[in-house]
Design a protein that fits this description.
Helix content is 24%, strand content 15%. With 262 residues, it is an alpha+beta fold.
C-alpha cells in the first residue's frame, strides 16, 4: 500500500517544478528567438537568389524597384512587372501585391516575404489596427534600380545602380539589397535614406528593424546574408527622425551600404 504524500513533500515538488520552469522558460524563449532569426535569414537568402536570377535572365539589369502602392483611396494601381514587389504591407489584406512582383516567378512562396519575428498587423484606411498579420517585412534598397525621386532643390535624383556589373561603390560585399525593415516605416517596397549626393542630412527616412536581439537582417549584392547588431535600439519616433550622436555608428553602417554618387 502506497503512502500518501505529505503536504511538505507536495510543496517541495511544487517548488522544484517552479525552479525548473524558471530555468527552462528563458532558454526556450531564446531558442525560439534564434529559430526566428535563422528563418528570417533563410527568407532573405531566398529573396536574394530570386533577385540574382532576375538579373541573370535580363541582361544584367536589376529588378525594378518602384514605389507602386494601391490602398483604399489611392490613385495608384498595381501593374504587372512594375516592381520587384508592389503594394503597401501596412494595408494589403491579400498577397496579390507580392504575386504581381517580378521576383515571384522565381519562388512562388509568399512566406519568404515575411519575417517570423514580425508581429505587426495590417490597418484600415483610418489607421485602425486589424488582427490580420502583415504579409511582408522586407524592402529593397533604394540604391538598386530604385524609383528616381526628384529633388527640387538640387534638381537631381537619388543615385541608383541599374546593372549588377556597375555595383562598385560600395562593392557587392557591402552593398545592401534586402532590408529587414521596422514595421512603423513600411509603406511601400523601397528602403530609403539620405545620401551625400541627395541632401546629406543625418536622418532616418526608413528605419531598420530591431526584432533580432537588437539587430536586423540584411542581404548583400554578393549573395550573402547577415545580421547587424545595433548600438542603440531602433525605435520609431516620427517620420524623417533625426539621428542622435550615440546612434550615428548604426546610421553610418547602413548608409555605407548605399550608393552615394550619381
Amino acid at each position: 500500500m502506497f503512502k500518501a504524500f505529505t503536504l511538505v513533500e507536495l510543496l517541495v515538488v511544487i517548488a522544484i517544478t517552479a525552479v525548473l520552469a524558471a530555468l527552462l522558460i528563458p532558454s526556450l524563449s531564446r531558442g525560439k528567438a534564434k529559430a526566428a532569426d535563422v528563418m528570417c535569414l533563410s527568407n532573405l537568402k531566398q529573396l536574394q537568389t530570386c533577385w540574382q536570377l532576375y538579373t541573370m535572365g535580363n541582361d544584367d539589369r536589376l529588378a525594378p524597384n518602384n514605389s507602386v502602392v494601391a490602398v483604399p483611396g489611392s490613385t495608384n494601381s498595381l501593374t504587372a512587372s512594375a516592381s520587384w514587389c508592389a503594394g503597401s504591407p501596412r494595408h494589403d489584406s491579400s498577397t496579390i501585391s507580392i504575386e504581381m512582383g517580378v521576383l515571384f516567378t522565381y519562388n512562388r512562396s509568399v512566406g519568404i516575404y515575411r519575417c517570423p519575428a514580425d508581429k505587426s498587423t495590417i490597418e484600415d484606411k483610418a489607421g485602425n489596427l486589424l488582427p490580420q498579420p502583415r504579409n511582408r517585412s522586407y524592402n529593397l534598397s533604394q540604391s538598386l534600380n530604385g524609383f528616381p525621386e526628384y529633388d527640387p532643390v538640387m534638381r537631381d535624383y537619388i543615385p541608383t545602380f541599374k546593372k549588377l556589373a556597375l555595383i562598385t561603390e560600395p562593392d557587392p560585399v557591402n552593398c545592401l539589397v534586402f532590408v529587414d525593415e521596422h514595421a512603423d516605416t513600411m509603406y511601400d517596397a523601397l528602403f530609403g535614406m539620405p545620401t551625400d549626393h541627395y541632401d546629406g542630412s543625418q536622418t532616418w527616412w526608413d528605419l531598420p528593424a530591431n526584432r533580432h536581439s537588437q539587430g536586423a537582417n540584411f542581404s548583400f549584392a554578393d549573395g550573402h546574408v547577415e545580421r547587424l547588431k545595433w548600438e542603440i535600439p531602433k525605435t520609431f519616433r516620427y517620420w524623417v527622425q533625426s539621428v542622435p550622436p550615440e546612434e550615428l555608428p548604426d546610421w553610418n553602417r547602413v548608409k555605407a551600404g548605399l550608393k552615394q554618387k550619381m
